[in-house]
Amino acid sequence: MKTIKILGTGCPNCVTTEKIVTEVVNGLNLKFEIIKVTEIQDIMMYDIMSTPAVVIDEKVVVKGRIPSASEIKELLNEEPCCDSNDTTSSDSCCDTSPNCC
Description:
The chain is α+β, with helices and mostly antiparallel strands. It contains three helices and four strands; from the N terminus they run E-H-E-H-E-E-H. It has a four-stranded mixed beta sheet with strand order 2-1-3-4. Helix 1 (12-27) packs across helix 3 (69-76). It is globular. Residues 79-101 have low confidence and may be disordered.
C-alpha cells in the first residue's frame, strides 16, 4: 500500500494540510495510508526546514506551505509523466516527478 505522510507538529497549517490530503484521497477513492508525523526528531529525518510537509512513498513533494487540493490530485496521479522506454533525455520530467517511471 502506498503511503502519504503529513509532517507537522499540529499547527493550524499542518491540520489544514492533513484535511486537504485526506479529502482528496477519499474523494478519489484511492488506497493510500495517511500517516501524521508529529515528533520533531522524526520530521528532521526528512531534511525539511519548515512544516507542513507532504511525503508520498518516502519522497518529500511539498514543504513549508499548504498545498492546494488540485496540487495533491496531480501529485497522486498514478500515470507516469513519461514513456519508460524514453532514455533520450536526462532532463525529462521524470527526474522530478513523484510518479516517475
